[in-house]
Each structure stands twice: as C-alpha cells, then as structure tokens.
User: What shape does this take?
Amino acid sequence: MKISRGLRNNNPLNIRRNKTAWQGLAAEQTDSAFFTFTTPAWGYKAAFITLRNYKRLHGIDTLHSWVARWAPPVENDTAAYIGFVARKTGLNPHERIDCDNKEAMCSIVAAMSQMENGVPAKMEDVEKGWELAMMHS
Assistant: This one.
C-alpha cells in the first residue's frame, strides 16, 4: 500500500510551506509544496496552532469555517470535506468550537487527517500533537 504524501511528510493535514518556522521541521524540506516534520506529532501540533490562529486572528470558530479556509473550493470538494469531518466527529458544522476543548479538537483534527490521507489517524500522535500545542500557548 502506498503511503500518502501527508503521512510520508509527517504532515498529516498537509500544511503548505510558507515562512512559518515551525518547531519539529525536518532539517531537509524535500517536498516543494508541503512542510516535512520530524514526527507526526509535530505536524499535528502545527495543525492545532493553525486552527487556534484561525479563531484568534480571523474569528473563525466553527468546523464549517475552519475546513472552508483549510481546504478551499478552488482545490477541494469543500462541502464533502466538511460533511466527512462532521459525520466522523458528530459535530454540527455550524456549532462554535472551543479551541481549548481537547476532545472536540482532537476529533476534528483526526477526522481532517483521515480525509487528507485516506486512513484513520493514530490517536496517540494526534494527542501528542495536542499536548505539544498546549505547551505552546
């Protein structure tokens, strides 16, 4: 079975390369479009911080608005992505989410990872990413 790009890069949510100097980046960035992290936990940490920044910087705090920004319709079937994450988490896409709610945030990020990679996320990696993100705040 072929490993998805996100898992190969330890970047389960496929965060695009930009000027952010994330902790846990691999010394050599071998993918021209997406970050490569040393472990999946660092990739998940970056995802949690990005979602928290969507709230802090843009006032975005619903599953619908997070996914619409994360996976815009110009390159994704955003409605299908939102529906998938809502079904996997049991959350209403328009319900406001508390970024400090570990259970909700871990379930959202795990579902987004599954959507991005086609396989269920390893919850121990997601939860380690959560812990790393909480140390960052």
